[in-house]
């Protein structure tokens, strides 16, 4: 007895300990007390069990905690608690483990980590679901699977799931025959001494036929896949029990607009399936109906914002394989004292539309408040609120998915009108507005969209989420799931789901439990005074009134098995003591017990009863021990079968046996065994006894001399098949190398002879026959007295083999009517073969021959038919060769068509006719255009006439161009068809319309007409494409095409073209300077006769004093031999002298806009002078007479050119012109002016003068004077003279240009 007595107290407190990582640490303290206290060690509020690396050693009143091979994880504070019936005390000790950096590295390297995490899956009702993951950890981590935070064995029967491990670090969980309640979040927790790892996955259970509602019945509700660490439900195996309701219908009343909540507590294994019904109709989760299982294990139905239509009977039905039960309640919705004159009406609107809710209050003065569920709405850009009279209106603008919900219009007295607004769009099931979970629970979010394989994204606080071990992202068709596993406070935030332009959001809040579980019981005691029983007692905690427990849970643990598993053994509501009997345990063992308090908010910590108790179930012998005869050196095995699992003791000749190298004792429930390894001769006759309480049984051990045994041999080694001529070798191995053996064949002992040798080498025994013959077949035995081994030997002839046949010969395709010849060769010409077709044996018959020619074997079928197709085999005793024969009809071929007939060029609008001929009139063909099959329709006709196949397109279009194919199964005929557009041509335009000549500044319009009004045209000038310019206009009206230039300029002259794709039309445009008129002289005598010796000067005068035309004879040039060209004012003068027949011809004086003509006819006859009074335009001159012609033009600076008979005679080149003051003189040689003809100078006026040269050398002068433009400061007149001399005499042509100011 402790001299101090009383409550426990410390004589020596534990001291801080510092050790190196990997060494052992010892924490000790000295405690006294009477009665002797029970001492435990704790860390982190958890009791340390003396097992593994932890040992508790008592030395008197010194209590030691020994930790082997400490790690960094062992650092921390340890509590030593001592307690007896008088009181209790405790003290703390600190352990520090050094070498932390290295330890941390080792920890990181060896702690568990997921190489492949479990994948979310989807299973149909009744199907198996499998989760697999690959883990790394050293040592191999312990793995625990949980569902929604609870261990599987707490919610599932053991037959409903299996957990396995495979080499390579693969761990597997398999759920058999899944049901709706099996859906949820499954987590895999892996732990070893260096750390732990966690990963989760989702199981979605699809409802099968007839169970479509179950997908919404027992799972997949947003926010309700949660851990349940804080609750403990009563488990009644294989039966259901309703803990809260009876089958009697209860009454429940609620005010309209308020919530109604029904809870039903049901337990059972397997986990029950719950169905809620209202008035017999199934209830599914929706806007106003929430179905879930809460943290306390209650199956809950919550009806939100009750309406009058919610009146009725609500039934909760629970069922599992063991049975079913139900509870019912009647809901009565009370009307408010003041009602709305017109309530709100439910709406369905499309996303991004406008929604208008309208109601009517009893009086104008009644104010109202709008709510979206529990959130008050304020007017603004999103919500418009209007009041007029008793009408009240809420307008929701730009509707999105999060606007889907329940809207309330509330009056001050509490009266409410309720409407559901359903938003239709891409998202069919939206997120809840908020999800609240406790730290450590799982938070789940589920969204359903209208189509599969849509581009979706999950965000939290605007950051896109990616899948990790603790963040699960999974899509099942149109359903998309997000789960945060084992939530922490930092997981709180705004969760957003985005698909296209649609989104839905939810506020996730992770918080601590608002209610505390009860405190654990105190003053726990165990009384073992009664044999094979333990009385457990406890006292409720002092704060039980504040947090009263609803019950207590007792767990037991079997000590000494190495398992740390605690099993629930008893629950009680309010009792403070319970007795545990030996018959209540499954096997004999030392048992520990612990207890905890529970209420609806969770359970308390557990408190362990102070010591273990030995409990023994009642046992009887089912199978007694048996005597054993064991050869020396081998193991002896003794076993006994009992009716219950108890602990017994083994004895050898009365001496108790302990577990050691030679003796091995095993207990497996009711089976007990003893193994004695390597029995000796001294053990002969030993007594083996087993004793367990009232059970005693014995057996004898007898030792047998060691036997000579053959080593086991395989079946193949004992059954030999040897070809004739090959050696036969039979061998075996004995346990005793000195043991003799005898060989026998068919019972006759064999001896060594020539060709047969019997050999012995150590433990090996062998018989060798050099060359096998058929007579050597038989049964051979090797006899070692204690053992015999037999060999079966069969000598065979060499097998008959077929020679290799090429694949081309073994796989034949033959046309119908042709012979089939199958041929092969054997290694033995005498070997028999049999032919088979599709397994049926063939025999020679009419049309079928089976031939044998030496080594060759042939099967010949004279005329192949379709039924001859199949698999043919030629079989001999040791080999088989197969042939595959396929009989096909003759190929359907097309008759050849010349290539030029297969290349078709057809104008649009004309029919297309493609025709070909096939060899078989019954053959089916298909027509294709550019690889697209054609079928008969209104525009395409496919014809079959005998062997002819025809494709007709009634009216060709440009789109019909391409490659056409007519195909049979064996042949193809191709046609190349090109559709040409109808040529677009321009309408005929007369030549006068195709040549345009006009003055500068005038309006120029070119026009042509095309055949097709839709055809575009392009305009070109001198080969350069024209585009619209500021002053140009290109018009297209009907079939007419125009090019319009409002004001033509000289640069617009040229060749214009109007082009279509098929035709081109040309216009020639000549732009002239404004018209320069030759001034007429009506009074002048236009016909003169000139003498050869006296040239005349006919003069043409104008009535206008400003215009003067005269024919002059320049006397000054008589002595010269060149004609004179004189230009002055507006007069242009041509002087040709002398007149000669060679100077006859037509002369022209031309400006840019007019031409004057002079015809000169020189004759040799004597000169005469004839002046016609009627003014003729023809002049005749005698030879050597001088011809002078004068014209007037309207512009003094205009340029004039002279021509004779169409050939320019002045100016010929730049060198011909000499500028001297106001005149220019150009000499022309007479020989250049050869040949008679007409001379002229033309403008647009009609003046024409004809001069006939009768002889002599004329001298003609043309003078043009201009006095109309007196205001022009400077006028330059250029006169171009063409003169062709017809005579050999020299003449002088002088051009005089006078400047007139």
From TrEMBL:
Signal peptide bounds: none
Cellular localisation: Cytoplasm
Basic and acidic residues bias (residue ranges): 1112-1125
Pfam family, one: I-set
Comp. bias regions, Polar residues: 1086-1097
Region span, Disordered: 1082-1125
Gene Ontology, cellular component aspect: cytoplasm
PANTHER family: OBSCURIN LIKE CYTOSKELETAL ADAPTOR 1, SI:DKEY-31G6.6
Protein name: Obscurin-like protein 1
Species this chain originates from: Eleginops maclovinus (Patagonian blennie)
């Amino acid at each position: 007895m402790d001299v101090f007595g009383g409550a426990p107290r410390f004589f020596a407190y534990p001291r801080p300990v510092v050790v190196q990582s990997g060494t052992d640490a010892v924490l000790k303290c000295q405690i006294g007390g009477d009665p002797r206290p029970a001492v435990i060690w704790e860390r982190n509020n958890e009791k340390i069990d003396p097992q593994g690396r932890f040992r508790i050693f008592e030395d008197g009143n010194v209590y030691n905690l020994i930790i082997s091979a400490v790690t960094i994880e062992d650092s921390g504070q340890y509590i030593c608690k001592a307690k007896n019936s008088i009181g209790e005390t405790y003290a703390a000790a600190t352990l520090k483990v050094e070498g932390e950096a290295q330890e941390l590295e080792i920890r990181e390297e060896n702690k568990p980590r997921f190489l492949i995490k479990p994948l979310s899956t989807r299973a149909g009702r009744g199907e198996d679901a499998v989760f697999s993951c690959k883990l790394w950890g050293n040592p191999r981590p312990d793995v625990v699977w949980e569902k929604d935070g609870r261990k599987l064995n707490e919610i599932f029967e053991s037959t409903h799931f299996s957990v396995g491990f495979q080499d390579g670090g693969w761990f597997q969980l398999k759920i058999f025959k899944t049901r709706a309640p099996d859906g949820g979040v499954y987590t895999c927790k892996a732990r070893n001494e260096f750390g732990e790892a966690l990963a989760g996955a989702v199981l979605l259970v699809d409802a099968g036929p007839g169970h479509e509602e179950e997908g919404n019945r027992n799972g997949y509700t947003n926010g309700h896949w949660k851990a349940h660490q804080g609750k403990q439900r009563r488990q009644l195996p294989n039966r259901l029990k309703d803990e809260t309701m009876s089958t009697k219908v209860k009454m429940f009343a609620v005010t309209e607009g308020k919530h109604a909540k029904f809870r039903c507590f049901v337990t059972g294994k397997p986990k029950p399936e719950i169905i809620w019904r209202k008035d017999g109709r199934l209830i599914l989760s929706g806007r106003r109906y929430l179905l879930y299982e809460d943290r306390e294990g209650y199956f809950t139905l919550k009806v939100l914002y009750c309406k009058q239509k919610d009146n009725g009977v609500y039934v909760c039905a629970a069922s599992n394989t063991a049975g079913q039960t139900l509870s019912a309640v009647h809901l009565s919705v009370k009307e408010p004292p003041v009602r709305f004159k017109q309530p709100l009406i439910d709406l369905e609107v499309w996303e991004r539309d406008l929604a208008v809710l309208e109601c009517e209050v009893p009086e104008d003065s009644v104010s109202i408040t709008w709510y979206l569920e529990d959130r008050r709405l304020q007017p603004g850009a999103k919500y418009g609120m209007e009041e007029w009279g008793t009408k009240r209106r809420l307008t929701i603008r730009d509707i999105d998915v999060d606007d889907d919900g329940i809207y309330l219009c509330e009056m001050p007295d509490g009266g409410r009108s309720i409407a559901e607004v359903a938003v239709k769009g891409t998202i069919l099931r939206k997120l809840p507005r908020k999800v609240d979970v406790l730290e450590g629970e799982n938070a789940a979010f589920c969204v359903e969209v209208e189509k599969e394989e849509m581009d979706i994204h999950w965000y939290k606080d605007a950051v896109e989420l990616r899948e990790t071990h603790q963040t699960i992202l999974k899509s099942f068709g149109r359903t998309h799931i997000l789960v945060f596993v084992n939530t922490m406070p930092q997981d709180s935030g705004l969760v957003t789901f985005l698909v296209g332009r649609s989104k839905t959001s939810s506020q996730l809040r992770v918080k601590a439990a608002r209610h505390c579980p009860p405190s654990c019981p105190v003053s726990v005691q165990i009384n073992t005074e009664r044999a094979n029983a333990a009385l457990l007692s406890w006292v409720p905690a002092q704060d039980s009134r504040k947090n009263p427990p609803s019950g207590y849970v007792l767990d037991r643990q079997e000590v000494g098995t190495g398992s740390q598993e605690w099993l629930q053994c008893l629950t009680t509501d309010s009792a403070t003591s319970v007795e545990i009997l030996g018959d209540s345990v499954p096997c004999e063992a030392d048992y520990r017990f612990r207890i905890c308090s529970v209420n609806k908010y969770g359970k308390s910590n557990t408190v362990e009863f102070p010591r273990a108790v030995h409990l023994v179930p009642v046992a009887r012998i089912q199978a007694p021990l048996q005597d054993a005869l064991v050869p020396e050196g081998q193991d002896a095995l003794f076993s006994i079968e009992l009716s219950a699992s108890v602990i017994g003791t083994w004895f050898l000749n009365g001496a108790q046996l302990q577990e050691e190298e030679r003796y091995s004792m095993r207990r497996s429930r009711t089976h007990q065994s003893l193994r004695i390894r390597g029995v000796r001769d001294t053990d002969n006759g030993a007594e083996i006894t087993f004793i367990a309480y009232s059970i005693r049984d014995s057996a004898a051990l007898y030792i047998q001399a060691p036997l000579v045994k053959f080593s086991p041999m395989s079946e193949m080694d004992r059954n030999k098949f040897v070809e004739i001529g090959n050696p036969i070798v039979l061998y075996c191995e004995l346990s005793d190398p000195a043991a003799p053996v005898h060989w026998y064949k068919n019972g006759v002992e064999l001896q060594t002879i020539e060709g047969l040798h019997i050999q012995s080498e150590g433990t090996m025994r062998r018989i060798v026959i050099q060359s096998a013959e058929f007579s050597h077949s038989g049964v051979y035995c090797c006899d070692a007295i204690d053992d015999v081994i037999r060999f079966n030997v069969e000598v065979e002839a060499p097998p008959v083999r077929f020679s290799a046949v090429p694949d081309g010969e073994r796989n034949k395709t033959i046309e119908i009517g042709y012979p089939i010849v199958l041929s092969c060769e054997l290694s033995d010409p005498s070997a028999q073969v049999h032919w088979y077709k599709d397994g049926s044996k063939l025999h020679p018959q009419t049309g079928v021959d089976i031939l044998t020619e030496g080594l060759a074997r042939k099967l010949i079928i004279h005329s192949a038919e379709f039924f001859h197709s199949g698999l043919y085999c030629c079989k001999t005793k040791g080999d088989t060769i197969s042939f595959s024969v396929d009989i096909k009809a003759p190929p359907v071929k097309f008759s050849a068509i010349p290539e030029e007939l297969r290349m078709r060029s057809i104008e649009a609008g004309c029919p297309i006719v493609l025709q070909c001929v096939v060899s078989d009139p019954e053959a089916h063909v298909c027509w294709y255009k550019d690889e697209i099959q054609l079928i008969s329709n209104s525009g395409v006709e496919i014809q079959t006439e005998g062997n002819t196949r025809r494709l007709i397109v009634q009216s060709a279009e440009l789109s019909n161009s391409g490659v056409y194919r007519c195909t049979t199964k064996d042949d193809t005929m191709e046609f190349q068809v090109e559709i040409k557009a109808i040529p677009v041509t321009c309408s005929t335009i007369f030549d006068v319309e195709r040549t345009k000549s006009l003055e500068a500044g005038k309006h120029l319009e070119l026009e042509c007409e095309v055949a097709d009004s839709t055809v575009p045209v392009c305009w070109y000038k001198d080969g350069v494409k024209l585009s619209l310019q500021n002053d140009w206009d290109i018009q297209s009206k009907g079939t007419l095409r125009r090019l319009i230039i409002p004001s033509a300029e000289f640069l617009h002259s040229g060749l214009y073209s109007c082009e279509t794709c098929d035709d081109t039309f040309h216009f020639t445009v000549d732009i002239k300077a404004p018209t320069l008129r030759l001034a007429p002289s009506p009074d002048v005598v236009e016909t003169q006769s000139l003498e050869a010796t006296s040239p005349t000067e006919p003069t043409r005068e104008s009535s206008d004093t400003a215009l003067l035309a005269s024919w002059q004879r320049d006397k000054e040039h008589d002595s010269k031999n060149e004609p004179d060209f004189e230009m002055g004012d507006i007069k242009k003068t041509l002087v040709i002298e002398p007149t000669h027949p060679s100077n006859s011809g037509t002369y022209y004086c031309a400006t840019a806009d007019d031409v004057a003509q002079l015809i000169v006819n020189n004759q040799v006859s004597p000169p005469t002078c004839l002046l016609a009074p009627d003014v003729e335009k023809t002049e005749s001159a005698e030879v050597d007479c001088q011809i002078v012609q004068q014209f007037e033009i309207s512009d003094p600076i205009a340029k004039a050119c002279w021509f004779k008979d169409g050939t320019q005679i002045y100016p010929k080149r730049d060198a011909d012109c000499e500028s001297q003051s106001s005149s220019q003189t150009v000499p022309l040689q007479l020989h250049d002016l050869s040949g008679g003809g007409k001379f002229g100078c033309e403008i647009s006026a009609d003046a024409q003068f004809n001069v006939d040269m009768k002889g002599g050398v004329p001298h003609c002068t043309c003078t043009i004077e201009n006095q109309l433009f007196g205001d022009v400061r400077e006028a330059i007149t250029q006169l171009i003279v063409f003169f062709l001399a017809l005579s050999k005499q020299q003449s002088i042509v002088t051009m005089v240009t006078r400047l007139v100011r």
